[in-house]
Specification:
2 domains; three-stranded antiparallel beta sheet; SH3 type barrels; elongated; five-stranded antiparallel beta sheet; alpha+beta; Alpha-Beta Plaits
């Protein structure tokens, strides 16, 4: 029929290549979405953090994208091909309960046994009274560092979900500070103590601006003769 077969094949091949390239990402996201939905590794309501730093609550998983709402109420839309190829922390799995860790310190002259007793008492009170705490969890205290100005320790509590940690820490800090104040236990701030081998000589010298010649020709303050100009 007079149709150039070579040109037609080139056109078909070029069109196929262009179509393949155009559909590569959408198809990858589609297949990845099927994997995400089928695997149930993340579900709406889970709190997740991606290796790229984004974190928040999963609100929706669609065929092409996953929607994540940050605590600041911003919405992150992540292609599912990235979801299946990234390292992710799911704070809601295998169970929503999670440890609540808080590091602090007390001064070197503190009675560490008494400090531990008070911290555990306050933490246990918080676990029972603050919404989101786990009442049957026994808090722990572990001393871990001789710091520059303090002996540091870690307090281990437990929250029912990721978001509960904020109120738990808030109430614990307020109550423990009041308890420490009543007991005379100080939470130190960084200080520097300078020790010398003996007294430090101090020389006080008057500024040149106030060394004025006296009527007898001397310079006040150092006994020098004023020079004639």
């Amino acid at each position: 029929y007079g149709v150039p077969v070579g040109g037609l094949l080139t056109l078909v091949a070029g069109s196929s290549l262009g179509l393949t390239l155009a559909l590569r990402d959408p198809l990858a996201n589609l297949f990845s979405g099927m994997v995400v939905i089928a695997s149930s590794k993340i579900r709406p309501g889970d709190y997740v953090r991606l290796s790229s730093g984004e974190e928040g609550y999963v609100t929706d998983i669609r065929w092409a994208d996953t929607y994540i709402r940050q605590i600041s109420n911003n919405l992150i839309i992540v292609p599912n091909s990235l979801i299946t190829n990234t390292i992710m922390i799911n704070y809601s799995r295998p169970e929503p309960e999670m440890a609540v860790l808080l590091t602090m310190g007390v001064s070197y002259n503190s009675n560490l046994d008494r400090v531990e007793e008070l911290v555990i008492a306050v933490a246990s009170e918080v676990m029972e009274e603050v919404p989101g705490g786990v009442p049957d969890f026994t808090p722990m205290v572990r001393y871990n560092t001789f710091n520059e100005s303090s002996i540091d320790f870690m307090v281990v509590m437990r929250g029912k979900s990721f978001n509960d940690q904020f109120l738990i820490k808030h109430e614990f800090i307020k109550r423990l500070r009041s308890c420490f104040q009543a007991e005379g236990i100080s939470i130190p701030f960084p200080i520097r103590t300078i020790t010398t081998a003996g007294p430090i000589p101090i020389q006080i010298q008057e500024p040149d601006s106030i060394r004025t010649p006296t009527p007898n020709g001397q310079v006040a303050g150092d006994g020098r003769q004023a020079s004639a100009s």
